[in-house]
Write a structure and sequence with these properties.
Structural class: alpha/beta
Largest sheet: 7 strands, mixed
Bound molecules: S-adenosylmethionine
Strand content: 15-25%
Number of strands: 7
Shape: globular
Number of helices: 12
Helix content: 25-40%
Order of helices and strands: HEHEHEEHHHHHHHEHEHE
């Protein structure tokens, strides 16, 4: 049972802008679209409202609460899969007109103490988006070594005190048994990290790192982007909203890499291989959106188009 009786809602970030970019201004779009991150369906519902009767929207989410919400959409053009968006690569080749991914966690996930995503509430140290498979953070921490924890907290949290935090975690496990709750982890980090970034809880970076690791967020993003090249038809749109620099760097570099012709230096007179994507836009939320929804503050949306690949 949740401590707060407030309903857990999610305010969609860049709602109009993302749907506009995905459909490419095509009102009454009749194609096949993918929403890789259904969440509470903010983007999906707007896409459906603009889709022609013959259009189709295939959504994905790893979270069972998101799947339950999707079940409330009674629309024959809509389908939902309880799976990672990296499985979008299983759709038929060149069959999709647009893929949207609004990365990270939803507000209902963060605000539900039972899910263990936030240091603001005490709850089990879980952090899995998909609670039906894989290890929780608490389970992983029962066996992880100092080196493994250091690597995760340093690489995914960009935390300067990663080694000290890892050492403290393992020492605490040896002395008093493994950590089980978010409050215990937040306290351990606060006791270990000496300097504070103004306005930021000392555990922010550690929680971010463990969440990214336990959900394989960056690996699945890379797999999904590669899958998009396969499933998008020429002219199809790729729209990705990211919320921190590690995600955005992957999206930016992926688009840049495939927006170039590839010259094979071993074959000097061969025609260069054509580029696969064209970068179209980089959009940040307006000041008024950020004022209304603090979560939009760090959002960056990148838009690219699958190019015509000559036969
Ligand atoms: C920011 S929310 C999306 C919100 C949604 N656009 C809306 O308007 O309600 C991110 C959602 O993506 C899901 N998610 C994150 N990574 C995923 C992945 N690799 N595969 C499938 N779903 C994922 C999360 O469970 C969460 O529900």
């Amino acid at each position: 049972m949740r401590m707060s009786e407030q309903p857990l809602t999610h305010t969609t970030v860049l709602l109009e802008e993302a749907v506009e970019a995905l459909l490419g201004g095509a009102a009454g779009a009749g194609g096949c679209y993918v929403d890789g991150t259904f969440g509470r369906g903010g983007h999906s519902r707007l896409i459906l409202s603009r889709l022609a009767p013959e259009g189709r929207l295939q959504a994905f989410d790893k979270d069972l609460d998101a799947i339950a919400e999707a079940a409330r959409i009674g629309d024959a053009r809509f389908g939902i899969r309880h799976d990672s968006f990296c499985h979008l690569a299983e759709l038929p080749e060149a069959s999709v007109d647009g893929v949207l991914m609004d990365l990270g966690v939803s507000s209902p996930q963060i605000d539900n103490p039972e899910r263990g995503f936030s240091f603001r509430f005490d709850g089990p140290l879980d952090m899995r988006m998909d609670t039906t498979r894989g290890e929780s953070v608490a389970e992983w921490l029962t066996t992880a070594t100092v080196d493994q924890i250091t690597e995760v907290v340093r690489d995914y949290g960009e935390e300067r005190f990663a080694f000290q935090i890892a050492k403290a975690l393992v020492a605490r496990r040896q002395e008093r048994g493994p950590l089980a709750s978010t409050a215990e982890l937040a306290q351990l980090v606060a006791d270990t990290v000496k300097t504070r970034e103004p306005g930021q809880n000392p555990a922010t970076r550690t929680f971010q790192a463990l969440r990214i690791f336990i959900n394989a967020e960056l690996e699945e993003l890379e797999q999904a982007l590669a899958g998009c090249l396969r499933v998008l038809r020429p002219g199809g749109r790729l729209v990705v909203i990211s919320f921190h620099s590690l995600e955005d760097r992957i999206v930016k570099q992926f688009i840049a890499k495939h927006s170039k012709e590839v010259v094979d230096r071993r074959v000097p007179f061969a025609e260069p291989k054509p580029m696969k994507l064209r970068a179209l836009d980089r959009i940040k939320p307006s000041a008024s959106e950020v004022q209304a929804n603090a979560r939009a503050r760090s959002a960056i949306m990148r838009v690219a188009e699958r190019t015509q690949v000559p036969a």
